[in-house]
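haha ok so turns out i had the wrong file open the whole time. this is the CORRECT one, sorry everyone. sequence first:
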Amino acid sequence: MLTTIRKVGNSRGVLIPVAFLATCQIEDQVDMQLQDGQIVIKPVKRILREGWFGEPASAAVLAIEAAQAQDWDIAATDNDSEWVW
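then structure:
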């Protein structure tokens, strides 16, 4: 199939027909490589729930989240006196 290369900002782009995308199971991301002077585009397989069971968050991230939670608790307790039941 012959197609033209189009200008996209400072880069160039090629429109890929939807039938090609569906056949190759390409969704949002692709892996693009240069092999022997040719551009090879491969689909990226997304793994469901990827990263859910990975390494736990670092101590720094946990400290930030704890500080944010404490700030929320303080803000919530400051306003408790305004509630009338």
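The chain has a mean pLDDT of 79.
again sry for the mixup
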